């Protein structure tokens, strides 16, 4: 058998592979878009992150999420229910921080605190959070970079992560 049979063999092998690729593409396209609030740590250091938001019952702050260097974590899973979220982060190794002008409560250890007033009187610490206007997007991501991990520097910009 000369070269006359080779195109048929290639065709016979290529068709199942092409069908598989099209099927996988359809499955990926049909899967729902992920909606959440994520923070990515673009530094090489461990970072501790706290988030604040307005819930039905009032203001809430939560923390600490520990995010290793060059990795991301989801702080809020599912579609975002608020337009504005507030973020505070500290570099656990170098002591820098990503902060802002909005005062909210934090604690030394893991926390979920209702209310943002009288932090010290209630046994908490006060920290300056940066506001992020998500524009009512279902998903948002903030990337922390080395340039923002300094005393008083503004927090990193946020983006719609879809």
Automatic annotation (TrEMBL):
Q: Does the keyword Signal apply?
A: yes
Which InterPro entries does the UniProt record give?
DUF1036 (IPR009380)
* Keywords from the named record: Signal
Q: Domain of life, per the record?
A: Bacteria
Keyword Signal tagged: yes
Give the range the annotation lists for the signal sequence. 1-35
Q: Which Pfam families match?
A: DUF1036
Protein name per Swiss-Prot or TrEMBL:
Integral membrane protein
From what organism does this protein derive? Mesorhizobium metallidurans STM 2683
